[in-house]
Flagellar basal body rod protein FlgB (Borborobacter arsenicus), 126 residues
Amino acid sequence: MQPVNLFKLASQQSQWLAVRQSAIAGNIANVNTPGYGTAEIEPFEKVLDSRRVAMNATQQGHFSGGVTNAGFSVRNEDGANSVLPSENTVVLENELIKANEVRRTFELNTAIVKAFHRMTMLSVKG
């Protein structure tokens, strides 16, 4: 039986969410640091677009291919937020909104995996 890619996709999204939450936490921790620039993670859709999905060879002579190992890039948001008198670009309200988006997305991810796992277990039982 072939492994189900939904679990791998959910795992990748969970890793991405953890990296994004870490960047948001760093932004919040440095909200009063003069000259600190807001860090943001590239959107998950962009991460998926940069990965090439191909079939893998199961026997010698078959074509080869695979998924590339693209990482998550952290970038500074230039001009996205207003610069404060301390030359800090972190707006606490925006960071809290982003943190809430991460929480909701992680809850949705978990609910989908849980439902898919339940469906898989029911299909194995029956």
About this structure: The longest strand covers residues 39-41. Residues 47 and 71 are 8 Å apart (CA to CA). The mean pLDDT is 78. The chain has one domain: 5-125.
